[in-house]
Amino acid sequence: MKIGIACDHGGFELKKFLLEILSKNFEIKDFGAFDYNSKDDYPDFVFPLAKAISLKNIDRGIAVCGSGVGAAIAANKIPDVRAALITDHFSAHQGVEDDDLNVICLGGRVTGHYAALELVETFLNAKFSGADRHKRRLQKIKDEECEL
């Protein structure tokens, strides 16, 4: 599984932590930020990550900003991206199983490092169920997506 990861200054420390641990078991593409800059903007890093998901260059993404909210909003602007702010174990796997979630968004200022690692591992280990009702719902969403 190819994984992408991106952050702004609000998620910089959490991204560094996750990247160090996850790179031992996964192929990871780092979309930045590569240096801490308190004036950077999450869309500059999240959009390239989300576009790589849309183009199927990576399978799953991890986007981290201060709260995770902005990263989720930005990622969801890209077709075929299904991103969500995840703060609990159930949503980390259920989002993938039912909704084919492909980008997990985390808050670097509100989620502890080891809690975030557990959420990411749960997200990465989950599989889409492929149930007809879930496919039907996802198709309705796809039908409403605007192409860029």
Low-pLDDT stretches: none
How many E strands?
5
CATH class: Alpha Beta
Name of the CATH architecture: 3-Layer(aba) Sandwich
Shape: globular
Strand order of the largest sheet: 2-1-3-5-4
Number of self-contained structural domains: 1
The biggest beta sheet, please? Answer: 5 strands, parallel
Cα-based radius of gyration, to the nearest Å: 14 Å
State the separation between the terminal residues, measured CA to CA: 27 Å
Helices and strands, in N-to-C order? EHEHEHEHEHH
Helix content: 40-55%
Count the DSSP helices. Answer: 6
Strand content: 15-25%
> What is the fourth-level CATH superfamily?
Sugar-phosphate isomerase, RpiB/LacA/LacB
Instruction: Indicate the mean pLDDT.
Output: 96
- CATH-defined topology: Ribose 5-phosphate Isomerase B, Chain: A
How would you describe this protein?
The chain has 148 residues and is an alpha/beta fold. It has one domain: Ribose 5-phosphate Isomerase B, Chain: A, CATH 3.40.1400. The protein has six helices and five strands, in the order βαβαβαβαβαα. Strand 1, helix 1 (12-22) and strand 2 (27-30) form a beta-alpha-beta unit. Helix 2 packs across helix 3 (69-75) and helix 4 packs parallel to helix 5 (113-125). The radius of gyration is 14 Å and the shape is globular. The two termini are 27 Å apart.
